[in-house]
Amino acid sequence: MMENKKILIVDDEPSILRLLSQLFTKAGYEVFTAESGRDALKIIEENNIMVMFFDLNMPVMNGMELCKSVKSIKPMSIIYAITGYASLFELSECLDVGFEDYFKKPVNVSTLLKTAESAFEKVNRWKKM
């Protein structure tokens, strides 16, 4: 049994947060959501969350900046980018700041569930070392 199945979703669109939150909750995950980078960082400080999905285009602190901050506090965390639009430049930058992979909106829900599952398998493998 995988313990600590916590997921954080950060997006400034409430409808997307609701949709993904329902999806992952139904799949048995404990879901945390935030509409801003600042809120996300607060949640990360207070909870041991290793798997996260960040929207790239958010006001104030975008997904890239958020990913960079989180990776500096939790280098082992596994973070995915979700974006409505991505240029090649942005995608290479995603790798630089520490994103594991990226998904284009509208996101295929079964892909997200598979992704989360393999992320937790990876987290658990690292824990066993």
Short summary of the structure?
The protein is an alpha/beta fold and 129 residues long. 49% of the residues lie in helices and 19% in strands. The protein has a single domain (6-127), classed as Rossmann fold, CATH 3.40.50.2300.
How is this structure best described in words?
With 129 residues, the protein is an alpha/beta fold. The chain has one domain (6-127): Rossmann fold (3-Layer(aba) Sandwich). 49% of the residues lie in helices and 19% in strands. It contains five helices and five strands; from the N terminus they run E-H-E-H-E-H-E-H-E-H. Helix 3 (63-73) links the parallel strand 3 (51-55) and strand 4 (78-83). Helix 2 (37-46) runs parallel beside helix 3 (63-73). 29% of the residues are buried.
List the helices and strands and how they pair.
Blueprint: E1 6-10, H1 14-26, E2 30-34, H2 37-46, E3 51-55, H3 63-73, E4 78-83, H4 88-97, E5 101-104, H5 109-127
Parallel strand pairs: 1-2, 1-3, 3-4, 4-5
Strand order of the biggest β-sheet = 2-1-3-4-5
For this structure, the CATH topology is Rossmann fold
- Biggest β-sheet strands, sense, barrel: 5 strands, parallel
Q: Helix tally?
A: 5
Q: What is the count of structural domains?
A: 1
- End-to-end separation in angstroms reads 17 Å
CATH homology superfamily: Response regulator
| Secondary-structure-derived class | alpha/beta
Strand content: 15-25%
Amount of helix: 40-55%
Name of the top-level CATH class: Alpha Beta
String of helices and strands: EHEHEHEHEH
Cα gyration radius (Å)? 13 Å
**Total number of beta strands:** 5
List the uncertain runs: none
Mean residue pLDDT: 92
Shape: globular
CATH architecture: 3-Layer(aba) Sandwich
